[in-house]
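Section 3.1: Structural characterization of target chains.
Under the original work plan, the team committed to producing a structural model for every single-chain target entering the pipeline before any wet-lab resources were allocated. The record below documents one such target. The sequence was received from the expression subgroup and is listed exactly as submitted; it comprises 324 residues.
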Amino acid sequence: MGIISLSYPRNESHIGLVNCTVVTHFILLGIPNTDGLQTILFIVFLAFYLCTLLGNLLILSAILGDSRLHTPMYFFLCNLSVLDIGFASISTPKLLATLWGQSRVISLGGCMSQVFFYQFLGCTEELLCTVMAFDRYVAICHPLRYLIIMNWRVCTILAAVTWVTSSFHATIFTSLTFTLPYCGPNVVDHYFCDIFPVAKLACADTYIIETVSVSNNGLVPMTCFLLILMSYVRIFYSILKMNSAKGQRKVASTCTSHLTMVTLFFVPSAIIYTQPQLSKVVANTLQISADVVTPMLNPIIYTLRNKDVKRALRKLRGGQTTAR
């Protein structure tokens, strides 16, 4: 069962360590109530995962291959594509293996990695969404000063801060989770290792980790969401003041893509981490939506309404682009 028993002599230096057990790996229960649906779900999730990889790799290739897209907006979009590839790869491969009938066992190191990278990439995407909203705010509300404010040095610093800050966030939460003693059972009631399902298995008081996790994972998304909301209130006010209907439509189209992505990412995450007592069906549905579906939809959201990206994709496959 992935548990090693350790026995110590009964003396003062080993009080409380008699017959102690150490968990060496965990067993993932997977998605509940899916008996008989494993093959269908395997095909569906595999299709989602492959579309996520292909879509985001195409976005990266198109932007990197077209010098006209070497702007702050598309620089941040490249960061988002990297995040989506990583985010989808945290849990989906193991989920696919479980659905295919392979082992549900995950090593202690593998479980720690899933917790770390889920927190790391999740927090990075929240901060990146906020930075992208700020970029849109400067572009629309201060167009004449845009290239001065959002120069490459500023863009690089903003991107680096999101990644570095998130790495500290993830390190703290992973440390808090795995410094708890795990003496068995070792069955994780989830399809991947996350803070709440793993912490429930600890043979110690989990009040601190649960309180810190709920407050921090609620506070960070809420703060980011409010900053994004403030940016868009100012953006919409500027749109209303525009005299050109064509300009209004173009700006609104760009903002709609970002707002759709923000909604798809923030809403499920906020519900999951602020409501740890959700039913398994609701929690798993929201989690799968955030982990599997949203990373696949982001490239579609940004290409369907973006003429520049569509032109770059046509150029990438050798097609003719229309002169503008």
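The chain is about 70% helix and 5% strand.
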